[in-house]
Amino acid sequence: MQKMNPPKCDDLDYIHFLIAAQKVFTCTEAARCQPEGQHSPAHDAFTRLLRRQPLDTEALWQEAKAFVDPKRGLLVLDDTTLDKPYAQQMELVTYHWSGKHQRVVRGIALLTLLWTDGQALIPCDFRVYDKPAGGQSKN
Questions:
Q1: Which end of the chain is more exposed for a tag (fewer CB within 10 A), N or C?
Q2: What residue spans define the domains of the chain?
Q3: In the predicted model, is pLDDT for residue 1 greater than 90?
């Protein structure tokens, strides 16, 4: 029986990346930001991590709340459509309004709650909108 290799990254690696990153939130960028070394995780390690993890935002909030000052700053709700024009049978892909394209497009709707003081952007919560399963609106 062949042993599986242990994961090269964990949820805290990705959460720390999300808190530190300000513009680009991809697995490729997460891998690029890791310390260089023989056992540094590649972007595939982060992709596998995200596939293993349940969509639970409590761990994100537990890490982010140390950086959030509720007496100053603002909460920002970002409604983003991740374009998936060629996806035929990908989960979560439905039609959504895209502010970028100023029309309805095929994609994944992602709602992100950020805290900002005008300088830092701290992700606090997120929701992937699953219209067929949830039946709820994005509001």
A1: N
A2: 1-53, 60-139
A3: no
